[in-house]
Amino acid sequence: MTSVRKISKVWKSKPTIEGAGVHLKRALGYYQVPLFDPFLLLDDFHSNYPPDYLKGFPWHPHRGIETITYVLHGRVEHGDSMGNKGVIESGDVQWMTAGSGIIHQEMPKGDDAGLMWGFQLWANLPASHKMMDPRYRGLVAAEIPTATLKGDVRVKVICGEIGGVKGPVQDVVIDPEYLDVTVPPETTFTHPVRRGHKVFAYVVDGEGYFDPERNAYAHEVVGTNYFDMKRDCACGAENLILYGDGDMVAITTQEQPVRFLLVSGQPIGEPVAWYGPIVMNTQEELRIAFEEYEKGTFIKHK
Fold first, then answer.
1. pTM (predicted TM-score)
2. Contacts of residue 16, Cβ cutoff 8 Å, sequence gap at least 6
3. For a 10 Å CB count at each end of the chain, is N or C smaller?
4. What InterPro entries would the database entry show (predicted)?
5. What is the pLDDT of residue 1?
6. 213 is known to lie in a ligand binding site
7. Where are the domains of the chain?
């Protein structure tokens, strides 16, 4: 019998500063990691004030993870130790597997009006792949297909498959799905997901009902003001929704449309040792990584 996933928990993204001084909203990170395995972090960088983002993310290392950058508006200049360099434009995706180690930089520039908006997702790698050769996949907007479904639901398929449309990112260790979904008003969107996989949604714009219960008290909501006695079962912009297990998700709209990222992946179930841009399984592996970075032996593959 097919079961529709229910909401397990809802968070509101929180302002933070990262890199050399980039103001952003953190939807997922650190203390939430055990709940979101295999995902580690989701940042929403959205500003039309260039001083909030122009300092960017200068040269820094990564090991043991994959970083996925998706730009909605603006431009991000980038370069890395493998010799890749260029600009991530509006609608583009950079899917970078750090593996054994990569050093790179990402410098947001915004668009001609000064708007910069995008997301960075970190996905963990299992111990068996922590030290794999790094690889880089840069996808321009035209390479990311859109599936048009019943009710004029539109889905940009970055990774995974929906309505017979496959995303361009294949052969990823955690078997992820990464969809950018837009649901018009008065419409229901359903999508099968693999039982046992972790599934979450992040609301980009609008609002919707993310499970059929429509019961605001059936799950925990984190980050609300305890003086606010109104609890709405609709989830709006900058809400992060974690699902329980099941075979499918169902999202319904009323007067407003909703746009959201829908992400899923196979949990790894291993210890996480995390410091800054490096994520390993043990503190000893972290020590070695930082020692190698200081000695100049961090990069294993060029």
1. 0.95
2. 23, 24, 25, 26
3. N
4. Pirin (IPR012093), Pirin_C_dom (IPR008778), Pirin_N_dom (IPR003829), RmlC-like_jellyroll (IPR014710), RmlC_Cupin_sf (IPR011051)
5. 76
6. no
7. 7-295
